[in-house]
């Protein structure tokens, strides 16, 4: 979780805000405290979502779907205001790490712990299915390892039996690698698809690896449809159960009752010392908002009565327990893409205002473009620095997106660089041009440096990723059309460079898009596409890289191709 920002309100309704839990295409999620002291997660819906009739109808439909669902395995909906903007929801706050975070920090789970988690999640899904609701996005990031046992969260695309989905035509719900073949091919959603996702989630827990590998989302989804799941090294009996859950034919998958029986659980999961250790990875909860935190109370109309369980969205945020609302498919971007001439490229650089602008303004040097920096303090820590330069940055699952309307990325950085770290984005042919609107001929110059670098620091390698607004088909270099589009990869990356390299450690280091960028899948590069191939909001991230498969974002920005 992150501290509140100056522009955040101090209260939403009767709730006192304590911290930011995450953000995404649907809105911002806060940790808050009720007047009686109960911790809740409050999701405030973005204005542009409420202005889109179909998206707002989808959101209200989700509330109705989960109104009747009340389960020990889900985060219950406590309060809501859905009549007049701003629209918001308050759900129970479930303390604990996501399964994704736990595996990332502790590695694969022992077979017995996996059986306990699998049985508990199967029991939870059965309770949800009993209400006629399917989850539709079960994955490690949507499982919270609470002290009393796992909880299912993020029912943002949950659907009741007989309801019609309001997702954009041509896009399947779910996450590549965890979405069942029948959903990808026929958009056929049902309880069996949740069983597939359950099996894929347990494969990740048992191996510590993505169940169908990494790479472009379309490739991952192709493997989920046509290739076997990765269960190398898993105890045979557990592997057989997971294989049954992820059978390509939904009719061949076991029911949840059979899954529970085959787990053969003989003791409560809370008695498992390994599981207890995972639950202790939960991040400490702030008791009060920061002193002097700015912001005003958000007035709201009388709220609805308690509505039952609702999604408590999550993200794979590495620092603690993060929530990210499920993103609506991109109708607004699709419309924008059809309206504009492909030969004209304009990059609009969002410039923050007020305090945020002061902290992010460049110094008097000509770093060019829109920069990020801070007050005088050491640059990136050398304690975690790599000794040798990695050859490249491989692809990985990454849902980070930059939005031009807010000028921010919806997920926080995975790692903190020092306050002296600066990044810039500018016109490759006119680096000194103003940053509010840059008209380009197709190339972007991206720079970075440590403003307060000194001699003798250990190498700190940085790679830059540039991510188009949509999934790209490698064979055409154009956006993917159809059910497999998800845009959950890191994008195109530059060759890693030591931020302290060169004769002057504090000098700017530059890379040019698309010239210096490739997409790397299984060690093989594919060249970056021209900006004109995919108009819309592009995401730029700066990463601290240690090996081709081990790198963490330290700063995020973006630009818009019009």
From TrEMBL:
<feature type="region of interest" description="Disordered">
    <location>
        <begin position="289"/>
        <end position="333"/>
    </location>
</feature>
<keyword id="KW-0418">Kinase</keyword>
<keyword id="KW-0808">Transferase</keyword>
<feature type="compositionally biased region" description="Low complexity">
    <location>
        <begin position="373"/>
        <end position="391"/>
    </location>
</feature>
<keyword id="KW-0067">ATP-binding</keyword>
<feature type="binding site">
    <location>
        <position position="43"/>
    </location>
    <ligand>
        <name>ATP</name>
    </ligand>
</feature>
<dbReference type="Pfam" id="PF00069">
    <property type="entry name" value="Pkinase"/>
</dbReference>
<feature type="region of interest" description="Disordered">
    <location>
        <begin position="366"/>
        <end position="391"/>
    </location>
</feature>
<dbReference type="InterPro" id="IPR000719">
    <property type="entry name" value="Prot_kinase_dom"/>
</dbReference>
<protein>
    <submittedName>
        <fullName>Serine/threonine protein kinase</fullName>
    </submittedName>
</protein>
<dbReference type="GO" id="GO:0005524">
    <property type="term" value="F:ATP binding"/>
</dbReference>
<dbReference type="InterPro" id="IPR017441">
    <property type="entry name" value="Protein_kinase_ATP_BS"/>
</dbReference>
<dbReference type="InterPro" id="IPR011009">
    <property type="entry name" value="Kinase-like_dom_sf"/>
</dbReference>
<dbReference type="InterPro" id="IPR008271">
    <property type="entry name" value="Ser/Thr_kinase_AS"/>
</dbReference>
<feature type="domain" description="Protein kinase">
    <location>
        <begin position="15"/>
        <end position="275"/>
    </location>
</feature>
<keyword id="KW-0723">Serine/threonine-protein kinase</keyword>
<dbReference type="GO" id="GO:0004674">
    <property type="term" value="F:protein serine/threonine kinase activity"/>
</dbReference>
<feature type="region of interest" description="Disordered">
    <location>
        <begin position="407"/>
        <end position="437"/>
    </location>
</feature>
<keyword id="KW-0547">Nucleotide-binding</keyword>
């Amino acid at each position: 979780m992150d501290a509140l920002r100056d522009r955040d309100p101090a209260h939403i309704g009767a709730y006192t805000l304590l911290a930011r839990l995450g953000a995404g295409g649907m809105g911002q999620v806060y940790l808050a405290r009720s007047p009686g002291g109960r911790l809740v997660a409050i999701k405030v819906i973005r204005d542009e979502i409420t202005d889109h009739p179909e998206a707002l109808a989808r959101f209200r439909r989700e509330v109705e779907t989960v109104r009747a669902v009340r389960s020990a395995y889900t985060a219950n909906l406590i309060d809501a205001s859905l009549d007049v903007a701003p629209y918001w929801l308050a759900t129970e706050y479930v303390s604990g790490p996501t399964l994704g975070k736990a595996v990332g920090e502790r590695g694969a789970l022992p077979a017995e712990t996996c059986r306990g988690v699998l049985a508990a999640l199967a029991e939870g899904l059965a309770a949800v299915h009993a209400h006629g609701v399917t989850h539709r996005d079960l994955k490690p990031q949507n499982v919270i390892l609470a002290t009393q046992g796992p909880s299912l969260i993020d029912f943002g695309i949950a659907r009741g039996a007989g309801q019609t989905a309001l997702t954009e035509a041509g896009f399947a719900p779910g996450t590549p690698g965890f979405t069942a073949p029948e959903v990808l091919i026929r958009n056929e959603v049902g309880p069996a698809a949740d069983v597939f996702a359950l099996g894929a989630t347990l494969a990740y827990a048992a191996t510590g690896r993505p169940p169908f590998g990494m790479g472009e989302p379309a490739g991952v989804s192709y493997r989920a449809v046509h290739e076997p799941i990765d269960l190398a090294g898993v105890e045979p009996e557990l592997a057989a159960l997971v294989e049954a859950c992820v059978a390509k034919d939904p009719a061949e998958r076991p029911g949840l009752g059979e899954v529970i029986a085959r787990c053969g659980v003989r003791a409560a999961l809370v008695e498992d010392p390994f599981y207890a250790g995972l639950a202790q990875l939960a991040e400490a909860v702030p008791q009060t908002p920061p002193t002097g935190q700015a912001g005003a109370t958000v007035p709201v109309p009388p709220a609805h009565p308690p509505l039952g369980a609702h999604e408590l969205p999550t993200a794979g945020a590495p620092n603690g327990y993060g929530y990210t609302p499920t993103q609506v498919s991109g109708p607004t971007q699709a419309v924008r893409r059809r309206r504009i001439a492909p030969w004209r490229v304009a990059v609009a650089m969002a410039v923050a205002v007020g305090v945020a602008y002061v902290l992010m303004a460049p110094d008097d040097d000509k770093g060019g473009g829109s920069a990020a920096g801070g007050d005088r303090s050491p640059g990136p820590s050398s304690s975690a620095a790599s000794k040798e330069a990695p050859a490249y940055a491989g692809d990985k699952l990454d849902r980070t997106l930059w939005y031009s309307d807010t000028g921010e990325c919806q997920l926080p950085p995975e790692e903190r660089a020092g306050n002296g770290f600066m990044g810039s984005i500018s016109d490759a042919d006119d680096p000194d041009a103003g940053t509010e609107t840059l008209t380009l001929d197709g190339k972007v110059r991206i720079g970075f440096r440590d403003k307060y670098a000194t001699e003798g620091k250990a190498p700190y390698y940085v790679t830059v990723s540039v991510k188009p607004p949509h999934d790209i088909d490698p064979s055409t270099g154009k956006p993917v059309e159809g059910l497999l589009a998800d845009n959950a990869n890191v994008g195109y990356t530059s060759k890693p460079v030591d931020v302290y390299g060169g004769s002057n450690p504090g000098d700017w280091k530059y890379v040019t898009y698309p010239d210096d960028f490739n997409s790397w899948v299984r060690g093989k590069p594919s060249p970056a596409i021209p900006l004109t191939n995919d108009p819309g909001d592009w995401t730029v991230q700066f990463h601290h890289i240690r090996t081709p498969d081990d790198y963490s974002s330290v700063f995020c920005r973006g630009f818009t191709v019009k």
